[in-house]
Design brief:
With 205 residues, the protein is an alpha/beta fold. It folds into two domains: 125 residues, Rossmann fold; 69 residues, no CATH class. The chain is built from twelve helices and seven strands. Helix 8 links the parallel strand 4 and strand 5. 30% of the residues are buried. The mean pLDDT is 97.
Length: 205
């Protein structure tokens, strides 16, 4: 392995806490079983990721309402109350990011699955998103992780060599996809573990 000179961060689940449970657990009166059914059958992860890949939110919502008219109110909440699903910064990881940016030895960028329609809200709320050299937003690229094109786009845009980079994501599927094209990968668990994993790659904060 060559010395790492570029660090690529995922955002949601790594630097930013995002969870639709913040809205729906209350809506379902704490009934996790009912909430899980809703996410498994109605507003699914695949459906959400389609918007992350650039599909229009309004169109996606109307199509889902047409499929499940009896759940219209719940479906419209998904993006209607999306801001409430956006939690706080994950401070420990933000501290890691700050150290890497201040170090000046690393190119630090982000690669996120995020709708281009909602991402400006995050940009306004979280100052640390402006610390990156750049951010590749799936909704703007009309593709998403784990498809190889978006990793290739990131490498090319910021002149990054895959074997000299590391990608940090809380989704193992996305990490494995990065490894498949030669990028070193870290499956994020928590900030403390991340620090140790970076040390193992000879990245010192």
């Amino acid at each position: 392995m060559k010395d790492i000179n570029a660090v690529i961060f995922d955002l949601g689940g790594v630097l930013i806490d995002w969870n639709p449970e913040y809205v729906y657990l209350d809506v379902f009166n704490g009934d996790r079983e009912k909430m899980k059914w809703f996410f498994d059958e109605i507003c699914t992860m695949d459906w959400n990721e389609n918007q992350d890949a650039g599909y229009p939110i309004a169109k996606a919502t109307e199509e889902r309402v047409a499929m499940f008219p009896e759940h219209e109110e719940l479906i419209r909440m998904y993006y209607g109350r999306w801001v409430e699903m956006l939690g706080e910064r994950i401070q420990g990881t933000v501290d890691v990011l700050k150290s890497l940016v201040n170090n000046n030895n690393y190119k630090v960028v982000a690669l996120t699955n995020w709708s281009h329609e909602t991402f400006p809200i995050a940009l306004e709320r979280f100052d640390f998103l402006h610390w990156f050299e750049g951010i590749v937003v799936s909704g703007e690229e009309k593709t998403r992780k784990p498809f190889p094109e978006i990793y290739e786009t990131t490498l090319k845009r910021f002149n990054i060599e895959p074997e000299k980079s590391v990608f940090i994501d809380d989704n193992l599927r996305n990490v494995e996809a990065s490894k498949a094209i030669g990028i070193n990968g870290i499956n994020f668990k928590d900030p403390e573990t991340l620090v140790e994993q970076l040390k193992e790659l000879n990245i010192h904060l």
